[in-house]
Write a structure and sequence with these properties.
Helix 3 runs antiparallel to helix 5 and helix 7 packs parallel to helix 16. About 50% of the residues are buried. This protein has two domains: about 250 residues, no CATH class; about 260 residues, Nitrilase/N-carbamoyl-D-aminoacid amidohydrolase, CATH 3.60.110. About 50% of the residues lie in helices and about 15% in strands. It is α/β, with parallel strands linked by helices. The strands form four sheets. A six-stranded mixed β-sheet has the order 8-7-4-3-2-15. Strands 9-10-11-12-13-14 form a six-stranded mixed β-sheet, covered by helices on one side. The protein has a two-stranded antiparallel sheet with strand order 1-16. Strand 7 and strand 8 form a beta hairpin. The longest helix has about 35 residues.
């Protein structure tokens, strides 16, 4: 019974904090590599139950034995991000060579920052309930949650990780993402959970007091409606796009270069040899893809290799795509880039950079303090102009370099431009070097988010990485072929270019914007009505 599960009933504040951390700690189990999405639902249900219970008291921690709403959100988030982003420590300590104490301190500050953002959303839920009344909680809970997921995407350059909607890539609401994207799935998850918690609590109160609760019946109707939306999304057919070019022979190179060797000049020749050997049997493919930063040098430093690769690609009529840093001497700016060689030579500059990995915030102050702030290739600039998709003879590539694949808006803008400019077949190609994550959850979570982009946009995806997970994903977000981590191999696959005209592909974030805007309008009207 939810009334029994109120954490605030515990007499010890320490016990309340520990329990909240444990509840938050099961939240990431719905994400890869675990993929047990019911655990995420349970974690959110217990959190929302505590929020509703605190709001029902209509006071903010007047009792010293009860945590404030902000504290509830903070400790729950410690557990969620402490477990879910634990791979950050691996990156900082094992590959950034920070001492254990320093790595722990930086990781804690990172988790604390994310936790404060999430706690801010939960605090907002309580404040809005005070302003608008408890009857508006069903709208307030998903509104504040998704608003702060957006904030997490862009605040401090953004870290769009562990959004609730991602757990549904293999869950019952997967099809809803083709309508409103991952943010919209999060909204529906929180709305349903909020409605369920409120209904159950109201039922228990009515049983205990032998009085009916006036707003229970409308809540039942609303909850039925919310549940019917994802069901409807899965039943309604989507327009299938069958391009002139039906399939593409793709080869994805996974060289499995140890991160400590990647930028060590002593291993440069060995790395190039591996890339050539892994590609030797695949030059007849339509598309050959090398991972992010495949050649550990700037483009102008390896022009002889580029000329040779370009010659091979032209001879075999192969489009070669590879990640390669580019330095512009005149502007003294370097970019993390993605280039194509062969008959169609193009380049794409990364639009969103990884903090500390590809640029150092407050670099003038931090560089030199510890080795982590002096990582190789950590002085990039984001793209300074609008980036376009890569266009080939009878298909187009929507590129995404590593971290970018986690930004739904960026990927939608790219395909929207591609759809507007050409009716050629579309393929989402993402490259990454997840060796930075080590043997952790990070690479699996990254792959899960890439799958969600394919599902949202209704186009197939191929992913080439340094040490895994390299994979082929169909237009429904299903992983149909992959290479295991830490294997040196090339994945050859004939990828179907069939795609779907999803609502999200057509309208992008407009759906969730409308939901949030309508909610805000209802809040304003409700407040004005109360004032009258």
């Amino acid at each position: 019974m939810l009334s029994i599960l109120n954490i605030s009933k515990l007499q010890s504040l320490i016990a309340q904090r520990i329990l909240l951390i444990l509840i938050g700690g099961i939240y990431p189990l719905g994400f890869s590599p675990f993929d047990i999405w019911p655990f995420t639902l349970v974690s959110i249900i217990l959190l929302v139950n505590e929020i509703v219970a605190r709001v029902a008291e209509n006071k903010e921690s007047a009792n010293s034995k009860k945590l404030s709403l902000f504290s509830i959100g903070l400790y729950w988030s410690y557990g969620a991000f402490g477990v879910g982003t634990s791979w950050v420590y691996v990156s900082i300590h094992e590959f950034g060579h920070a001492p254990v104490v320093g790595a722990v301190a930086i990781s804690f500050l990172f988790v604390l920052t994310l936790s404060i953002v999430k706690a801010g959303g939960i605090y907002l839920m309580g404040k809005m309930a005070q302003w608008l009344g408890q009857n508006m909680l069903l709208l307030i809970i998903p509104f504040a949650w998704v608003l702060f997921e957006f904030m997490q995407t862009w605040l401090f350059s953004g870290f769009p990780w562990l959004f609730a909607g991602y757990t549904q890539i293999d869950g019952p609401m997967w099809m809803l993402s083709t309508w409103v994207g991952v943010y919209g799935v999060s909204w529906f998850m929180l709305a349903m959970i909020g409605g369920l918690v409120i209904l159950l609590r109201s039922y228990l109160i009515s049983r205990q007091s032998s009085q009916s609760v006036s707003f229970v019946r409308p809540y039942v109707v609303i909850l039925i409606f919310l549940i019917s939306v994802p069901v409807l999304a899965s039943l309604l057919p989507q327009a299938i796009i069958e391009p002139n070019k039906k399939s593409l022979k793709v080869a994805l190179v996974q060289p499995d270069i140890a991160q400590e060797k990647k930028w060590d000049r002593r291993y440069f020749s060995d790395i190039i040899d591996v890339l050539y050997q892994q590609s030797r049997q695949h030059w007849q493919a339509d598309l050959l893809v090398w991972p992010e930063g495949a050649i550990p040098a700037y483009k102008h430093q390896v022009e002889d290799i580029i000329v040779d690769l370009n010659h091979r690609a032209k001879q075999t009529h192969t489009d070669l795509l590879l990640g390669l840093p580019i330095y512009h001497a005149e502007q003294k700016i370097s970019y993390a880039a993605f280039i194509s060689l062969g008959e169609y030579q193009q380049s794409y500059h990364k639009q969103v950079l990884v903090p500390f990995g590809e640029y150092v915030p407050l670099g003038n102050l931090l560089r030199g303090l510890i080795e982590f702030f002096n990582l190789p290739m950590s002085s990039f600039s984001p793209a300074t102009s609008t980036q376009q998709v890569m266009s080939f003879e009878d298909y187009q590539v929507v590129p995404a370099i590593c971290y970018e694949i986690t930004y739904p808006g960026i990927m939608h803008d790219l395909i929207a431009d591609a759809d507007a400019s050409s009716d050629k077949a579309k393929l989402l190609v993402t490259v990454s070097n997840d060796a930075w994550f080590g043997d952790s959850f990070g690479p699996y979570q990254h792959m899960q988010m890439a799958r969600m982009r394919a599902l949202e946009l209704g186009i197939p995806l191929v992913r080439s990485t340094n040490d895994g997970i390299s994979a082929v994903v169909d237009a429904r977000g299903n992983m149909i072929s992959k290479l295991a981590r830490y294997t040196q191999d090339t994945l050859a696959y004939e990828v179907s270019l069939l795609s779907y005209q999803t609502l999200y592909r057509q309208y992008g974030l407009l759906g969730i914007y409308l939901i949030l805007a309508m909610s805000l309008l209802i809040f304003v009207v409700s407040r004005l009505t109360q004032s009258d």
